[in-house]
Design goal:
By secondary structure, the protein is mainly alpha-helical. It has two domains: 88 residues, no CATH class; 331 residues, Cytochrome P450 (Cytochrome p450). Helix content is 56%, strand content 6%.
Length: 550
């Protein structure tokens, strides 16, 4: 009896196919508007928007078969996608007047894919070459390679950090300094970082660690070159040694030591591999930040991040257990003299960020520098001559007066209107390779940073070729305002001064003692072509022959 009653009720309430389709169109439009207006990313509100309506229409439809139910659900979701695509491609969209590929206008999935391949920086640069200095690279995102836009985006009073920094950690979990989106909170947290990397702190604390590690690097490379006496061909992986050096020095100044990668000949713990996996995942999800919520539900998805944190924080555990009076970065971050010191979890988050920001970026810069010097032996020779003219003893490049000498070395320091709510990116790779600001942007040309009176446009082969090129812009473009290797504005790199000192010290010490040479038959360009960008750069081996100079 109950079954018959239910069937009768269903027959009375059932809707024709035509009415169901009309309701699907209307309800999908309302649902799309709700997603557009509120942008829900938590499972419960998303489920409320996506499940009840097609369930009800399936129940009230002329047939409740599995096939018709699947068709109703599928049609509902396809209509939502259709409304989304139609709006993003329509002239009604606020960014409709900005040029860009159709697929990029529809979805950030294109940028996520190119991030997965590690080729995003080249892809966006190509977009700027095709579409101009302001490109729509996402449904609600613009990319610019104009220098005058950079300060408006990153400078004081500029834009807050965009969606790519949203939802990176679970709610209630402390985040690192670099991920803070609220300017006032960032300013408060940045205070101890500025103190930790002040000129006084670098001189009194960090400099000693740096010079000791530079000496250790030279010592290890010297032991390798001893094989020359045995008639063996001496080859070193410069990427491995630069990476080992930077991790060791950052371990010293952050937690008082603990990694000792130079001593073991490289990373034997798997930390760098775990870091690459962790950053690759986050770089991809930065384009679809709502997906973080669901990826965190996958047990194995966070394995790389947890593994990296365990290894990177091991020295911190030792530091806390044993205690020390040394003023390392942890001492500053703990800020125990403050009325409201940060939580231990916050200090850990900032400590991990310090290891990543201070080691991988500097290692990439150093390795890239050796790569360009290997490709340009005439510049390598000029650098060697300059280093030799300033330092005469093997200990000089990391002696007491080395810092002052290095700051005056010309060749050394040369190598080294939008709608509200739109996410805007100043694409550094495209900006700093824009010929409007830097002539011959793809050439390694340290002379561009020399005072103009020291640049010889007649005898230098590369500059003479540019001067005689009738298609080039008049004169030689060099606009330092377009150069932002440490970012700019209130969220720029806190460790800039130490990083520059670190680069100078390594280059001077290593160049004074050794000479690196390309290996016969090796195409060096493959190293640059293989670089992959995942917020940090994934680098391959850079093998070179090494010999002693002094």
């Amino acid at each position: 009896m109950i079954s018959l009653y239910s069937q009768a009720l269903l027959d009375t309430c059932s809707l024709s196919s035509r009415v169901v389709w009309l309701l699907l169109v209307q309800s999908s439009f309302i649902t799309w508007r709700a997603f557009k207006r509120f942008e829900p990313d938590k499972p419960l509100p998303v489920a409320i928007l996506l499940l009840p309506i097609p369930s009800l229409l399936s129940f009230l439809g002329p047939s409740q078969s599995l096939q018709d139910t699947i068709r109703t659900f599928g049609s509902f979701y396809l209509f939502i996608l259709a409304w989304t695509v139609a709006y993003r491609l329509s002239p009604l969209h606020p960014l409709a007047r900005f040029p860009g590929p159709i697929l990029c206008r529809i979805s950030k999935g294109i940028l996520a894919w190119h991030t997965y391949t590690g080729n995003l920086h080249r892809y966006v640069r190509n977009l700027h070459e095709v579409y101009g200095d302001m490109v729509r690279v996402g449904p609600n995102e613009l990319s610019t390679n104009r220098a005058d836009c950079t300060l408006s985006i990153l400078g004081t009073g500029g834009l807050v950090k965009g969606e790519c920094w949203y939802n990176r950690v679970p709610p209630g979990t402390p985040t690192s300094l670099v991920s803070i989106r609220v300017p006032a909170v960032h300013k408060s947290r940045r205070r101890v970082w500025d103190l930790a990397f002040s000129a006084t702190t670098i001189r009194d604390h960090w400099k000693w660690h740096l010079m000791r590690r530079v000496g250790q690097l030279v010592e290890h490379l010297g032991l390798i070159t001893e094989q020359e006496k045995c008639g063996a061909k001496v080859v070193v992986d410069l990427n491995n040694w630069m990476s080992s050096f930077t991790y060791d020095i950052m371990g010293d100044i952050t937690f008082g030591g603990g990694f000792e990668m130079m001593k073991t000949g490289g990373d034997t713990t798997g930390m760098t591999e775990a870091l690459q996996g962790f950053n690759t995942q986050h770089a991809i999800l930065a384009h679809i930040p709502w997906a973080h919520t669901y990826v965190r539900l996958i047990p194995f998805a966070a394995a790389a991040g947890k593994r990296f944190a365990e290894i990177a924080l091991a020295p911190l555990i030792t530091r806390i257990t044993e205690g020390t009076q040394v003023k390392d970065l942890f001492w500053f971050l703990a800020d125990e003299e403050s009325p409201q010191p940060p939580s231990r979890a916050t200090v850990k988050a900032d400590g991990i960020m310090a290891i990543v920001a201070g080691s991988d970026t500097t290692a990439t810069t150093l390795t890239a520098m050796w790569y360009f010097l290997l490709r340009n032996p005439e510049i390598m020779q000029r650098l060697e001559e300059e280093v030799d003219s300033h330092f005469t003893e093997v200990t000089d490049p990391w002696g007491e007066d080395a810092v002052q000498k290095m700051s005056t070395m010309m060749w050394l320091n040369s190598i080294i209107c939008i709608p509200e709510g739109t996410q805007v990116t100043s694409h550094t790779y495209s900006l700093q390779r824009n010929p409007l600001y830097f002539s011959l942007p793809d050439l390694f040309l340290p002379q561009r940073w020399h005072p103009r009176e020291f640049v010889d446009f007649n005898t230098d082969r590369k500059l003479r070729q540019h001067r005689d090129d009738p298609t080039s812009n008049p004169g030689f473009n060099h606009d330092p305002t377009a150069f932002h290797p440490f970012s700019t504005g209130p969220a720029n790199c806190a460790g800039r001064a130490f990083a520059i000192l670190e680069l100078r010290a390594v280059v001077c010490a290593v160049v004074w003692r050794f000479r690196f040479l390309p290996l016969p038959g090796v195409r060096l360009e493959e190293w640059e072509e293989s670089l992959e960008d995942y917020f940090i750069v994934r680098r391959g081996r850079l093998d070179a022959a090494v010999e002693c100079r002094h």
